[in-house]
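Input.
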Amino acid sequence: MKKTFLKNIDINNENNLSEGNLNKQVKTTDVNVLLNRVRLDRKKDFKKKLFISVIFAFLLCSLIAYTTI
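Output.
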């Protein structure tokens, strides 16, 4: 009885280790996807801020030119 019980534990441990390795690989892939998404979001935010800054500068210059005329 004891040997059979120990064999079952060993089989369960091997299965858990295999599943653990698969889960780690999936998590690594998910982390890479998330990092890429963060980089793309930062790039989009930078472009938006740059666009808004250019529009604000243009409006400010236009207002100054209008008031001096």
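The helical segments are 2-68.
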